Amino acid sequence: MEVAFKLNDEDRVVECAPHESLRTVLRREGMMSVRYGSDTGETGAAAVLVDRRLVSADVILAAQVGGHAVMTVEALNTGPDLHLIQSAFAATGAMQSGYSTPAMILGALALIERNPDPGEAEIRDMLTGILDRETAYVKPVEAIRRAAAVMRGEHPEPFGPLIVPPLTDGTHPAVLDPDDPPPAGPPSVPRLVPSKDVPDMAVVGKPEVKVDAVKLAKGNPAFTDDIEMRGMLHAKVLYSPHAHARIVGIDDSDAVALEGVHAVLHYKNTARIKYASGGQSYPNPHPHDQVSFDDKVRYVGDRVAAVAAETVEIAEEALSRIRVTYEVLPAVYDERETLLPGAPVVHDEPDTSHIHDRERNIVHHIAARRGDVEAALAGADHVYEQTFRVHQVQQCPIEPHISIAWLDSDERLVVRTATQVPFHTRRMLAPLVEREIKDIRVMKPRIGGGFGAKQEMLIEDIVGHLAIATRRPVRYELTREEEFVSSRTRHPQTITYRTGVSADGTLVAQDMRVIGNTGAYGTHGYTVQTITGLRGLTSYNAPHKRFTCDVVYTNIPVPGAYRGYGAPQGEYALEAHMEDIALDLGMDPIEFRRKNWVKVGDEMDIAPHLGERAVAEEELEEYPKVMSNGIEECVAQGARAIGWHRRNDPAWREPADRPHIRRGLGFAFCMHGTAIPFLDMGGCSIKINDDGTFNVLIGATDLGTGADTVLGQIAAEVLGVPLEDIRIYSSDTDVTPFDTGAYASSTTFISGTAVKLAADEVADRIKDRAAKMLDVDDPTSIDLGKRMAWAKDGSSVSLQDVALHSLHLEDQEQIMGTASYVSPESPPPFAAQFVELEVDVETGQVTVTKLVMAVDCGVAINPITASGQVEGGMLQALGYGHCEEMVLDDEGRTVNPRFGPYWIYRSDDTPETEVYLVQTMEDSGPFGAKAVAEIPKDGVAPAMRNAILNATGVAINDIPFTPERVWHALNG
Amino acid sequence: MEIVRPTTLDDALAARDALPGADLLAGGTDLMVEVNFHHREPEHVIALRRVSEIAGWEGRRIGAGVTWTRMEKGPLRALAQLSRTVGSPQIRNAGTIGGNIGTASPAGDGLPYLAALDAEIEVASAGRGVRRLRWDEFLVGVKQTALRPDEIIIAAILPEVMPVAEEFAKVGVRNAMVISTVSACVMRMPDSTWRIALGSVAPTVIRARRAEELLGTTAAPRGSLLAEVADAVAAEVRPITDHRATEAYRRHASGVLVRRLVGRCAA
Predict the structure, then answer these.
(1) Is B58 helix (H, G, I), strand (E, B) or coil?
(2) Which of A39, A61, A896 lies at the smallest CB-CB distance from B28?
(3) What value of ipTM does the predicted structure carry?
């Protein structure tokens, strides 16, 4: 049918099928800013304006807009400049991945048209239908506020951090005066507490605008799905309806016969090659328990077959014509039940090796210890034992997994894919598609969030197989439901602590037992649980410690990497356990922790004994040490910001005018790692251009975090140029150097050091030439700055002249540098997490009213993007503690694979957040940096739990804190 | 699938008469989800957005095509409150009261309001003209209505006597939940009688008649009467256990919610 409407002020008549959504039609018309987030209108990634009102283009028929005016963000892109709203989003760091930014900008435009001075509540209400998994809405709200102000003709102050003087000397606790208020400023502005050890720099530490801001604000084609390929086919995958079954037979004849179907793949026609899908370094941790298509399914949502067809509809029709005969087997979901005698054996296939105890579903048995835990516990004045259960949640990137594969003119397999690990993917894909690594190219364009779900070779083998089979480009994008069920999730665990404490509150021993549920496959199963042990036993670093863990198979959707890895699980249990011990001992919960937390100079002695590269020796001569720790300052700033003194004030805790409300404050101590030592490696190469600017090629994969910007700042600082003179490109296995990828909080530290080293090399060569040009003997006396090379006598030559000289005039050469970095250290960032909340004691409903995190991430290279990481991480962590939960029915089906019934936080119920960046100088990091990406995931759930305890006197050990769970707990 | 886009009620009714199995599309927010998921592959769809006769709201008559966005800004307090809890601005800009009535979900956001008011649903067909059914004659089961295949919902008709106080609220996991575990609408009428309706706690929206009787004409109920009302509501609702909440919790929360709303409506 034909539909005539106005699109961005131009009359259009489009041909479309009656059932097609407006989103489908707009993308076909080239409006790539209208993006897929769901089929239900719930994410808002596809929101557009129809007659200047925000409408979800995925739940409106194209036919319905006949005669109406449709506007997408492309309407604002009339020239090189940004619209004022787009500029405000760029200036405030309101875009991380930017996937849903076009929708937010349109919503803001319509809102400001209706009300030139919208209040925060109105802005938040407008944003409720545009889910953001990245920013916690803090900076988008600020962007819209500022845009409205500018459009009213006002001139707001430039956006940047609020400098807050330190409250401590860095080592001793502060004594806070309750009458001394925290610094005032909007919540979107990071509070930066400077350290005297950190020098002032030109670009590093500055609130630079993200290098990808323009393309994201304009909604330019930048993501995997934003290219169009001639002759492209669409893949769909048949997923298992059974939690556990053998495939006895598969008849694809009706599917193959369907017109428009080009390939149908399943276990009968695909080579059986074993692999582990987790995107990790070579050699991938065992077990290698997957194949592209198996004759057994192990969870509802497991792969059965894949189809490539001319259209998505034909591919779906083909799936319905595949006849599969299953022999249904009993299934098991709980990590404790799978260990019981008689439980079904999830992996009984003989060709998977390295399963610790196949019959009992134990994939790995992990054991690490220091000292003699049993003896120490026996001699302790107090021994506390406590068991916690943490549940299954999903990463929920708004951009689901998507890959497009094709054969290029050299018949090499090219895969353009939403991945955090392009280089691992290339290496892991090669054997599955039976090609050499040299014949595969993996490209990572802009990514719409990953959070670990994309640290996985999840679907690249499917498009690879299909592209090779059909010799056509093949695209496969997960639906939201598939993203929930058939991608990856967080490992559920049962965690038991036994802790021995002496009478004065000193920890003498800590014994941690974990059963980790790795679901149907072992991907990341080993390493996630080792991080649980590492983080669970290092924060307080008892002299005697032991970690014992069974990683077990069940028939739940597959857990994998999820921001924080195993740390949120371990630190939840630990910080709840420590709170209860403190209260039992009659000690202040922070004072008790302070007595025991790791301090500068302490050896992190269990670290080398856990992980992918755990050392074989029982005892090492040397252990890694904590070299920087800003926790005292973090605690002081955070406590002042949250009003910690109120936790013992009955008038505040029990507001007289609201008899059913109890208020509480909670704290958690957080410690994380920065990259995997001796393993994570990143490369960088830099070259100078004719105009004295630089191309920086990196393998590091910015998935929305701002890595490209931070790495660019590091290069700019070294080379003495503004950030705009750095052109970053990442990542493409044909073009850029290797990088392990975006995970383990490694990019700023590992890839950043590689950039710094490569830039140092370039700087040296610039100085050599500048010295000649300036007739200076000692090139090391030359300084770079302000796009110039300066001699000590004040004479100078511009980098452009150096470039032209080197490329064209004399002793011609390409000034370039290449470096890579692997670290022997993993310097821990530290943080103090505070939560303020209210409990409705009649309904059990908990309302979190404020989150404060004060974090020591060394030197924040970019305080805006760093605070954005903390804001977004805290809100994800709040969802983990409060309301997110994958629910399976008795048959193993996920009953809530949608954002309606799976509750991630929206803009209108997000608590106030404040972020303090407490500087320390970490000498092992580039310009003093440590990691910040994952630590915000660690403390919210336990601090929330401890705040509920403070409010009500009730300690709850299992998460999430749904009204019903809290209500039951309150009623005994 | 074929789409008919009438611009007048007569044309819409004629289309409905000619295509009795056709799906009706108002805002599209419910139907499109089903189409996208292939739960429904309608042959014919009649899109009602352009039918001007059902788009208006005059006094007691709320046209079926009136959107949540309009009701949110309208003069009826509880209706505005509940409209604000619907989905998101995108959904509220598209979704309509008529669609909500037609979908007849037990969790339908607008339905407790209509039930509490004893509102009528006005429907029309080409052959039989207009008829009005009281809300409980119209909403007969989970997603089941008395709408005949040739009929279209025209309007919700509110009574002449309107409450002196009205409140709506939901209980969910968080304070601004899209899908609630319980929703309730409470009204105090000029004759001091009470109206209590609840959503999500039975196959259809229900009235808590026993609790209404207990309240009688007490204008400012207190103490033990409020507790009795809460208990009566908890006993009257017929909730199920699902992943959002257990039956026991829903009963409890229903009682608490109604007790609080009664308190807010009290003289």
Answers:
(1) strand
(2) A61
(3) 0.94
